[in-house]
Amino acid sequence: MAKASFILLSLLLSIFYVDLAAESVAKSTNFIEASCSATRYPALCVQSLSSYASSIQRSPRQLAQIALTVSITKAQSTCTFVSRMAKAKGKGMRRREYGAVKDCLYEMGDSVERLSRSVRELKRMGGAHGEEFKWLVSNVETWVSAALTDETTCMDGFSGRSLDGKVKTAIRARVFGVAQVTSNALALVNQYASTH
Question: Least enclosed by CB within 10 Å: which of 48, 69, 75, 195?
Answer without folding.
Answer: 195
